[in-house]
Every structure is written in structure tokens, then in C-alpha cells.
Amino acid sequence: MLELLPLSLLALVAHAVEHFITVGGGDGAAEFNPQWLDNVDVDDFVTFNFTTSGHTVVQTSLTLPCVFITDDGAPGLHGFASPLSAAAGTTFTIQVTNISARNSLFVSCLHPEPTYLTAIFFACGTDTHCQNGAVGGINAVEFSSSVTDAAKTSVSRGFADVPSNGTALGSGVLSRVVTSPSLASSGPSRLSPGAFVGIAIVALLLLIGAALVLRHWMVVTRVRRAHKRTEWKRRLEKRLSQVHAAGATDGEPEPAVKPAGGAEDVPRM
Ligand SMILES: *[C@@H]1O[C@H](CO)[C@@H](O)[C@H](O)[C@H]1NC(C)=O
Ligand SMILES: *[C@@H]1O[C@H](CO)[C@@H](O)[C@H](O)[C@H]1NC(C)=O
Ligand SMILES: *[C@@H]1O[C@H](CO)[C@@H](O)[C@H](O)[C@H]1NC(C)=O
């Protein structure tokens, strides 16, 4: 739970966006949805949601789309990989840390202003899912057909070096692993900014409701008390007039007046 806190705080402070890609489907199906995620900025998060078990997310490259990046030049710099046994309902989140220029031809043809974005590639490392088309990319949509074609003829065993429990937090090329699905199931839910607003609105409504109930109760109590007071007055007057009437006929003072029946109901002031 605590390790998730920085993610939500970062997302709130830096205005980083969290993008979602669902991972699921049968063997050989296009398991990533969306398969080609575009316009992901530096510091943005990409969360892979495993909707079914039996799939993985492994970082690959443009030229070798079905091979885990074990060494990216610098010592210890290797790609990200989710655990091989990621359970359905768990998530795997990476954060884009580096930006690089898009293919210069693409930039000059389609974008008058050069945009500097990251191209990150990933594939499902389970069995032959990658060769069957389970590849995808972040800011790499212009490479979609070449990567898909290269995957079909790719060597098997390209994922032999993927650790079965996934790569460590912080690992990745151009990105870093932020949360990894623990092999135990349900991950704690994260509060999005929308959820915070929702909670605030519900709290406000509850407060207004409580205030209305309190007001209603006060009005009812006041009316009831006023009603009781008039009733008590009416009874007293009635009793007094009876006493007066009795005094007029007998000419004798009435013995001590027994308190009226309703006297016990007289509220204390
Ligand atoms: C992915 O999972 C997260 C966390 O459980 C959830 O908030 C999000 O809505 C899910 N997104 C999709 C597209 O399923
Ligand atoms: C996976 O297991 C290895 C060896 O037990 C350990 O060194 C590594 O930190 C583990 N990785 C994760 C992501 O838990
Ligand atoms: C990306 O940026 C980090 C620092 O933010 C740096 O350590 C790393 O070497 C950079 N390059 C790649 C390819 O990840």
C-alpha cells in the first residue's frame, strides 16, 4: 500500500497521466488493447491490466521484437518484465523516464514541429504468443507493421532470460517498473484524482444531509414544546375557572387544589 503512495502523489503533483493497456485474450490473439499507445509523455505511467492469466509483458526492441532486452549497453540496464505467473486481476505499471526523438523522416513529414517522444516496445513472453502477434508499443505506432512482420519470423527462446518473478522495481530501458503484481492476487486500489473529487462531493452531501436533519429535528422540537406549553396553559385556565365557579356557589374557600392531571407533563423551562 505504501509503495503505491508515491505513484498517486507523483501523478497528482506532476500532472502525469496514467494510461491503461489490458492484457488478455487467447493464445495468439492480439492480447494488448490498445496495442499501440500513442502520445505518452515523459513521466507518464502505463499500467498493464491482466484480465486473464497466462500472459506476460516483456520489454523488447524494434529490431528484435520477440527478444527480452537483457543488456542495453550499460551494465545492469535491462528491460522491464512482469512476473511470468501474473494472476488475472493484477496490474503491472511502468513510468516513462526518457524521451528520444521520433524517426526523423516521420517528424519532417507529419509534424511541422519535431516532437520528442519515447519508443518503447513490449511483447507477451509466454510460449509463442509474440510470434503470433502479441506485440505492442508506446509512441511507436509508425513501427507497428514492421514490428508485427519481424515478430512472425522471430526466433523462439527469446524470453528464456526473463526472471520468473519479473524484474525488480526501477528496472527498464527508457522507463522504470513502478509497481509489479505480487504473486498474491488482489492489489490495493489506488485513488485517482477523480476518486478524491468523488469522495469530497459525497462528504459534502452527507454534511448537508446531516444539517437538514438537525434543522428539521430542531423545528419539530420547538413546535412540540410550544404546543405543550399552550396545552398546559389551557388546562390551568380551565382549572382556575372551575375553582372560581366552585367558590362562587359555596362561598367557601376551596380546599387545596389537587394538581391537574396534566401537570406532570409540564415541561421544565
Ligand atoms: C486497470 O486496473 C486499474 C487498477 O485496478 C483500474 O483502476 C483501471 O480502471 C483498469 N483499467 C482498465 C482499462 O481495465
Ligand atoms: C526475484 O527473485 C530473485 C532471486 O530470488 C531476487 O533476487 C529478485 O529480487 C526477485 N525479483 C523480484 C522482482 O521480486
Ligand atoms: C534514462 O534516464 C535515466 C535517468 O533519469 C538514466 O539513468 C538512464 O541511463 C537513461 N537512459 C535509458 C536508456 O534508460
Automatic annotation (TrEMBL):
Residues 1-16 form the signal peptide. Keywords: Membrane, Signal, Transmembrane, Transmembrane helix. Coiled coil: none annotated. Gene3D superfamilies: Cupredoxins - blue copper proteins. The chain crosses the membrane at residues 195-214. Residues 243-269 are annotated as: Disordered. This is Cupredoxin.
